[in-house]
Design a protein that fits this description.
single chain, alpha/beta, Rossmann fold, 8-stranded mixed sheet, two-stranded antiparallel ribbon, disordered N terminus, binds adenosine-5'-triphosphate, binds (3R,4S,5R)-3,4,5-trihydroxycyclohex-1-ENE-1-carboxylic acid, P-loop_NTPase, Shikimate_kinase_CS, metal-binding, EC 2.7.1.71, plastid
Amino acid sequence: MEASVSFSLKSSYLTKNDTKFGRKCTGIVRASSLQLGFQRGQTVDLADLTRNRVSIKSRNPPLKISCCHKQPAGTEIHNSFDDALILKRKAQDVLPYLNERCIYLVGMMGSGKTTVGKILSEVLGYSFFDSDKLVEQAVGIPSVAQIFKEHSEAFFRDNESEVLKDLSTMHRLVVATGGGAVIRPVNWKYMKHGISVWLDVPLDALARRIAAVGTASRPLLDKESGDPYTKAFAKLTALFEQRSDAYPNADVRVCLEDMASKHGLSDVSALSPTAIAIEALLKIEIFLAEKVAVRNS
Ligand SMILES: Nc1ncnc2c1ncn2[C@@H]1O[C@H](COP(=O)(O)OP(=O)(O)OP(=O)(O)O)[C@@H](O)[C@H]1O
Ligand SMILES: O=C(O)C1=C[C@@H](O)[C@@H](O)[C@H](O)C1
């Protein structure tokens, strides 16, 4: 079940003139359940959300790495009932070892951070945040495209860093970050408070997805000329070249090409968001198990 919970961000964001000022901005948290204890539509403070933190104590029984995929390769990702069960079991395996830490999804525009992030938040009982939306709400402008137009990309990036800084003090969140958040080292400092997951999707698949919905909401793609697929592909290629060193900073990489070949598929577009969420949980589990093993050795 998803519920919308209003909250207030009271931290300082940069103004149009690049001066810091304290302002109260309303945002929407899409909570996966009402387990945060707030009523639907209730206004709560960011501090109230952070007070929900449970102290992080070390609970380190050895991690069990298990994979429930028993069906023949290629069939399981098309079976939504099986997927739902596998997803739930994998979440139950991972949850105790996450120790309340946030999950930050990074990846290019259209890589599925929002789609997969909502599935993960639902199954983990975490709250879902989209950092682009938090920036819009902090700035008081309803779209990223408009923020770029009325201010600048630098202005957007400054506010994006402020949002990530605030989120880094919180727990039990899945955060879909903006596609370009990875380019600023300070953002990694904030994201290292949680587990970062890179959704690595081939550029042609990204361009197909973006062309299907149009580029109007994605200001960095909208300036190109040509048909939607060609302009998305050209710009995504240029952006990826600038960022290809940054995405691998993530703790975990979910590579759709590897997944497709593991499942005997020729096209990554056959991979459902649920199958990708399962893979993300599996990779997180392996990452946490290695950390525990290193600490215990
Ligand atoms: N596994 C998938 N298979 C096919 N389409 C997908 C998949 N995951 C996401 N999509 C579609 O791709 C588009 C982009 O997905 P989404 O908004 O989740 O990406 P994003 O990484 O959050 O993008 P942005 O960074 O630009 O906000 C949407 O139309 C979504 O429905
Ligand atoms: O890849 C990018 O640089 C961006 C991705 C979007 O999520 C937005 O954050 C914005 O359009 C910039």
